[in-house]
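can u do me a favor
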């Protein structure tokens, strides 16, 4: 069985989308290429999973996500898998976050063992998303959520400052047993 590091784009690879920052102006954090290479070098498949609202007025949102996916894959020679659910916010779908479909598809296709895998999270919703797919280990970004201490005790969460710090923790094996 293989192992993977799962993450979403917003909050981990680039700033979360907010009302005051246009999707057109979002840029990947400068440390993303280095972090992805550290994770890949540690033997993990890099898996980026996300929802995408396909009907944002005036934007070809799917094209923007596809461009971001290409850029992520260009950052590293290691295997990067991306999976996006293009479903409107009102619709329900087994692949729509927080349902486990996107993660489960990658796990099945690449023989990923959830007990060996890690999810880098920026919100409590991300934790529930990972848990729904049987991921047990989480690295939570300190800057995006202040209430990690109130998570259930059975959820293993280590708090890190950013993706680069998470990659270093993963590389030294302190999270992945």
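np, heres the sequence
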């Amino acid at each position: 069985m293989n192992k993977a590091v799962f993450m979403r784009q917003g909050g981990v690879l680039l700033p979360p989308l907010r009302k005051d920052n246009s999707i057109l102006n979002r840029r990947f954090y400068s440390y993303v290429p280095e972090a992805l290479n550290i994770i890949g070098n540690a033997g993990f498949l890099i898996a980026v999973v996300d929802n995408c609202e396909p009907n944002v007025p005036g934007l070809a949102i799917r094209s923007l996500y596809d461009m971001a996916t290409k850029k992520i894959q260009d950052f590293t020679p290691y295997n990067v898998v991306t999976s996006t659910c293009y479903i409107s916010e009102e619709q329900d779908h087994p692949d729509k976050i927080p349902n486990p479909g996107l993660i489960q598809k990658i796990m099945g296709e690449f023989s990923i063992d959830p007990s060996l895998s890690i999810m880098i999270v920026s919100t409590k919703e991300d934790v529930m998303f990972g848990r729904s797919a049987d991921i047990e280990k989480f690295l939570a970004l300190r800057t995006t959520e202040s209430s990690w201490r109130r998570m259930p005790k059975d959820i293993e969460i280590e708090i890190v400052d950013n993706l680069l710090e998470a990659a270093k923790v993963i590389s030294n094996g302190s999270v992945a047993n």
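The mean pLDDT is 80. hope that helps!!
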